[in-house]
Structure formats: C-alpha cells, structure tokens
Amino acid sequence: MTTTRRHHWRLAPGHPHPLGATWDGHGVNFALFSANGEKVELCLFDERGRREIARIHLEERTGDIWHGYLPDARPGLRYGYRVYGPYDPRHGHRFNHHKLLLDPYARAHTGQVRWSDANFGYRVGSPRQDLSFDRRDSAHSVPKCIVVDPAYTWSGVGNPARPWPESVICELHLKGYTMAHPQVPETLRGTAAGLAEDAVIEHLLRLGVTAVELLPVQAALSSRWLVERGLSNYWGYSTTGFFAPDPRFIPRGGPREFRRMVDRLHAAGIEVILDVVYNHTGEGSELGPTLCFRGIDNASYYRLNADDPRYYDDVTGTGNTLDFSHLRVGQLVMDSLRLWAGEYRIDGFRFDLATTLARRGDGFDAGAAFLDALRQDPQLARTKLIVEPWDVGHGGYRLGQFGAPFAEWNDRYRDALRRFWRGDEGMLAELGGRLLGSSDLFEPSGRRPWASINFVTCHDGFTLADLVSYNHKHNAGNGEDNRDGSDENYSANYGVEGPTEDSDINALRRRQRRNMLATLLLSQGTPMLLAGDEFGRSQLGNNNAWCQDNELSWLDWGRLDEQAQADTDFIAGLIAFRREHPILRAPRYLHATERDEEGVEDVLWFDLHGEEFTHEQWHRPECATVGLLLNGRAAVGRDVHGRTVHDACLLVVLHAGTAPVRFRLPERPAGSGWRLVLDTARDPAWRHEDLDEVTLELQARSVAVLERLPRTDERAA
Fold first, then answer.
1. How far is the C-alpha of 245 from the C-alpha of 218, rounded, in Å?
2. Residue 530 φ then ψ, to 5°
3. CA-CA distance, 330 to 375, in Å (whole number)?
4. What is the mean pLDDT of residues 50-56?
5. Cα–Cα distance, 92 to 294 (Å, whole number)
6. Are residues 440 and 486 in the same domain?
7. In terms of domains, do 439 and 573 share one?
8. I need a surface site. Which of 292, 416, 424, 428 has the fewest CB within 10 A?
9. Are 653 and 625 within one domain?
10. Is the peptide bond before 18 cis (omega within 30 degrees of 0)?
11. Band of the pLDDT at 668, cuts 50, 70, 90?
C-alpha cells in the first residue's frame, strides 16, 4: 500500500525528544532516529493490527531524528515505520521501505512474526543472497507497536532495597515457573499475572530468597528455522524490543500486568532483577530478517566488519553485535534501563555477555563509556548491577575485571565446587579461595565479597538433579545432533546414566545435591539458586534447553512429594541459617587479620587431625577433606550505628572422599564443646546435637556444620 491518507490524521511538527511514541494526554509525539535514512513514513493500523489505515510522511527532521505529532492519536494505536534509503550491503546500508519496521522505543508489541520470505530484505534463495533486493511487503507478517499510556497506580510499598550482603537470588523463567503450577489458574499460567499469584509468592517466601532474577522478559524473536522445527526461543535471548515486555507474558493486561507482578513481589519483600540482552538483537547475521534496527539504520546500530561492511563484527555468536561506540546505541540502552528501573521499578539488571558492552575497538575497556554511564547515573547506580563477564570475541573472558559497582557471575566458583564434589584431585586450593568470596578476583578493584555471584547451576547447563545423574549432555531434542551445549559439565552419574530405581545411587545423588547447596549457602559472596533445584527438577540431561518451551523446561510442581518437600525445607533451612549468622555474609574479606579476645583469627583452616592447614596440604592432589572455621567472635562488621557486630563460631567441614573418616575437632577457639548443627549424610540433616567426643565421624561425601558452645563464664556474661 502506498496511498497516503493524511487527511484523516492531523500532523504537527512535534519534537525530536523523547524518542519513541509518547502520549502526553492530548496526542502522541513520534520520534525515530535514522542517520542514513532519506525518508521516514509512520504507518498506522487498525485495532487488530492487520490493515494499514494510514501512511504518514514525517517531514520534520532535527539532526538525525525524524518526528511528528498526531493530536488525534490515542493510547492503543497500532503502528510501525518504513524507512527509505540506499540498499547497499557492501557499504553497510540495508534500507528497504517494503518492510514494516518496529519502533526501537516501542513500549508494547502485539502479535508475533509469521514467517515467510517477505520478512527478509533480500530475495531468499537468490544466487546473490543478501545483495539482492526483495520488494514484497512484510506488514502482514510482523508484530505491530502499540502506543501506551504509562500511568499506573502503585500500591505504595516501594522497592525492598535489600543490601547486597543479605541477598539470595533465585533465577527463574517467568513462563516456565508457573506453566504447570496446580495452584495457579490455568488462564494465568506462564504469565506475569501467574507469577504474582499467592501460592507462587508463598513458595519463594518459604525458601527465603530475597530476589528473583528473571530470564529475558523483553520482546524477543523465535527464528524461522526454530519455528519450522516446532521449537521456539524459550529463553528469550534474541531481543527485538528493549522497551516492551514480551507479549507472551502479558496476554491480558499489557504492561500494567507486568507492573502489578512487580508490585506484588515488592509487597512480599522480594526484589526483581531482569536478565537483559543488549549485546545483540534478534535480526541475526546478514542473512537474517529485516524487522527493526537493520532497516532503520544498519550502519549505525550494528558493528560492521571494517574491511567488508556487508558482514557483521560478531563477538556474541548470534550473527550481529550492537555498536556501543555509537552515541545513539548507548542512548537506546540507557533509556531502556531507565524505563525499566523507573516505570517498572525493577531492582537490578544482569547483563548478558557484558564484555561486548565494554568493547572499544577490538579490546575490553573497564572504563568504557557505557559502564561509566551506569556508574554515574543517579537512578541506575542505585540498582543491583550484575554482569556476565565474557563474550565469544577475542579476549572476551574478563571475570573480575569490571570493577565497582558491578557484581559478576563467577563461573570459577561453579567449576571449583562441581569438581571438588565430583572427586577431582587437586581442587582444594582453588576451592578455598572461592569459599571466601574470591578476593583474588574482586578485592583489587575495591569490591566486597558480595561482588561474587556464586552459583552451582543456572539456566545455561544441567539442573542440579541432572548434574548428579548424567555424565554427558543429551540434547538431541534441540535438533542439532547433540552438538550444542557445553561438553565441560563436571558432572557424574554415580553408576547409571539418567533415572534409576537403585536406592543407593539415588541416596548418593540426593546427598551430593545437598552438599553442593550447603557449600553454596555457606560461602562468602552472593548465592544464586536455579529455580526447581530445591525439589529435584530435571531436564533429562539436556544442558541447553533454550528452545524447549514444553514440559522439559517447565517446573514440574507435581514432584513436590514428601521427599521433595523435605529437600525444599533443607534449602530453606540453609538460607535461614545464613541469614542468622553475619559471619556467613561478612562485609569484608576474611584474611585472618581480625582476632577475638583470645587472639584467634576470624578464619582458620583445619585438617583431619584438627591441625591448621599447611601450605603443602593445600596442594596435595589427594586431599579431599577440609575444615573451615569462621570465627564470628572476632569482629565481622559494624551495624548502621557503627557498633561492632559479633557472631557465633562456626566450623564447616567438607568431605568429598568416598569413604568415612574421623575428623578431630579443633581445640581453639576455646569453648565448652561443639554442637552439631547440620550433617548432609543424615535424615533429617538439620540437628542440634551436643558432642561429647573430640572427633566427628563423617560419612562419605558429606558436609557437617558445627557451632562452638561458649564457656560457662561466657554464658553468664
């Protein structure tokens, strides 16, 4: 359609800012950035988004911003853009006005891509590939943008503002968490409204987590080859709209439904952290579709190969990379983050492939403009900022190098724990540093232990149940002949690959799950749990279930039998124990520099004989047992009034050996004896058992936690 129906829509010049479609209570201002475009048309659609009812030429241009104001437009209006300009891939330009384009700043989308060759700017199948030009109109097969009224009445609760040292994060998928939940109404399952249900929030409160980290919730794309195989982009790491919640999560209430979910979680004291994907978009490589950025201004939005701009400089492994050196790309991302932090009251962000966001030329720069912008922004600097410190480009692995105020996913923690409990030799020295917050990685930049996001499992990889049930990945269902997903899982099946009826194997697997979770919650740093690990969720050995929007990925709440309930209580007990003991979340690194009144250091390491560890013992490959004494009688910090905070003296004993041993309890610090608090080899694991002997029998592969009982004179005091 090329007919212009401007007589139905009064058009005023409008303003170049803010970008996007902005309802001011009287009309709507439209503003779109395109530096290399030559003409911009605003296309309006009927209520169903199927019929184009007007095409309006935005004649006003201020710098690189095209803009216009429609005094007769109202919230709910469906729209998109067509941008005219050169189609010259060899010089980085891919304009094609036959393709309807999403507004990068759209607050809401409606509909999904209906795949056809018309979605591509070139003629699919042409011998010239992307150098060819396709003239088919794509409007019938792409989502439409919606003008939104951002007004929302909040409950008045406000953000929980949890201090970092108190944080316990649960990573979950918004849809998968409730899709099979029997206490969530069927019409709400898999949606933001479902996550806001009482039964769901009660489970999170029962666990004791302080924050949920949601896998990507921004509007995303399922690529053509996925859809044709009957799969989908379940995880959502292919963003097409950085300002819009994905329509699949808000089918009834639109953006207001998402805000209500956040409000409900805040009322329960639970923070909301978003996993955000600003390193690339869903448009893929030069052979991908033209849906938004590519057709608006390909050469501005994307990093192009310096020698041949026809191709993308791909350091993300997805086909393209957003160009953070461009002013408008940095603005886009900052504006997006401010919207989520402001209009949605989001408490924090986890940046996927964050090294990409800090690249300058070919290298990583911890002082990159985008990172500095986050540091100085008065709104965003107060949120929790978490980075995934790597990408797939040259020099992309940058764990520990992002500096304040960022926390970082610590995969060295993950690998050390997995390998230690699997029984790998020579892991003790690495494990010791990870248990105390990885000071070698984070302290040089002035950060505290909370900067280490400790995890054993996350969405990417085995679940905890699969980690102790499979030696190898089983990803055949993904349609890539089991080539996708990591081969370095550091997992073990303990005798049988997958499910088994062998009670001894199942008991060992359950104990190993307990061991890793106990180690996680007893470590310095910020612990992150994977949703469903508390009751043994399995993906049947699939360690890359990104495209599995089905029962394989959804949490099976039917697994909450008596044993699963006990396992959930076990984790809840760990979180409560962590909350009760400040020494487990010390505000500063423990370096054996603080001492109690008897001169005993704040942290000590002991061997089987109750003797302090020597340098040689740390590096003995066969050493599989260690006792970590956390002396809370030494100062562990100060409260808000400056008063010194003390705690109990705890002894954490980790035994990864395959045979029972006797561990001699250390004599110092002095006390009237030891009380056994936790033993993962027993049922129930939580105990309050005063010990009369000077040794503790440890079962094979187990964790024990003991508390030093004060002397009689200390009790009297």
1. 5
2. -95, 130
3. 14
4. 95
5. 10
6. yes
7. yes
8. 424
9. yes
10. yes
11. confident
Q: 306: which 2 tokens?
A: 């310096």
Distance of CA 696 to the CA centre of its chain: 40
pLDDT confidence band for 638 (50 / 70 / 90): low
Calpha distance 315→331 (Å, rounded) = 21
Which residue among the candidates 352, 466, 533, 707 is catalytic per the annotation? 352
CA separation for the pair 627, 613 (Å, rounded): 9
Task: Give a yes or no: residue 54 inside a domain.
Answer: yes
The SS3 assignment for 210 reads: coil
Beta carbons of 174 and 274 less than 8 angstroms apart? no
C-alpha distance from residue 516 to each of 203, 500, 545, 701 (Å) = 21, 21, 22, 10
CATH number for the domain that contains residue 93: 2.60.40.10
SS3 percent helix, strand, coil of the chain, rounded to 5, is 25, 20, 50
Number of domains in the chain: 3
Q: Is the peptide bond before 405 cis (omega within 30 degrees of 0)?
A: yes
Domain assignment of residue 177, given as a range = 168-209+410-580
Q: Mark whether 573 and 594 lie in a shared domain.
A: no
**Per-residue pLDDT reduced to its tens digit, 237-296:** 999 999 999 999 999 899 999 999 999 999 999 999 999 999 999 999 999 999 999 999
597: exposed, middle or buried (Cβ count in 10 Å: 0-12, 13-18, 19+): exposed
Asked about 352 being catalytic, the answer comes back as yes
Task: Tell me, yes or no, whether 246 lies in a domain.
Answer: no
Pairing of strands 78-84, 144-146: antiparallel
Q: Could you give the maximum distance between any two Cα atoms of the chain, in Å?
A: 92
> 384 pairs with which residues across the strands?
348
716 band by pLDDT with thresholds 50, 70 and 90: very low
CA dihedral 410, 411, 417, 420 (to 10 degrees): -130
- Residues 678, 653: one domain? yes
- Please state, in angstroms and rounded to a whole number, the distance separating the CA atoms of residues 59 and 66: 7
pLDDT attached to residue 93: 98
Q: What is the pLDDT of residues 483-515, one digit of tens each?
A: 999 999 999 999 999 999 999 999 999 999 999
Question: The whole model's pTM is what?
Answer: 0.96
Which CATH number do you get for residue 653? 2.60.40.1180
Catalytic residue list contains 271 = no
Residues 599-616, buried b or exposed e (16+ Cβ, 10 A)? ebbbbbbbbbeeeebeee
On the 0-12 / 13-18 / 19+ scale of CB atoms within 10 A, 593 is exposed
CA torsion sign, 300 to 303 to 307 to 312?
A: negative
**Burial of 117 (C-beta count, 10 Å sphere; 0-12/13-18/19+):** middle
Annotated catalytic residue: which of 388, 391, 415, 534? Answer: 388
| Residue 319: HSE in the Cβ half-sphere, 13 Å Cα cutoff | 14
Q: Does 521 reside within a domain?
A: yes
Q: pLDDT band at residue 712, thresholds of 50, 70 and 90?
A: low
602 with 554, same domain: the answer is no
Answer yes or no: do 127 and 177 share one domain.
no
Q: Which residue carries 């487990």 as its tokens? A: 584
Give the three-state DSSP class for 577: helix
3-state secondary structure of 557: helix
Contact between residue 651 and residue 677 where contact means Cβ atoms under 8 Å apart = no
- Element housing 87 (H / E): strand 87-88
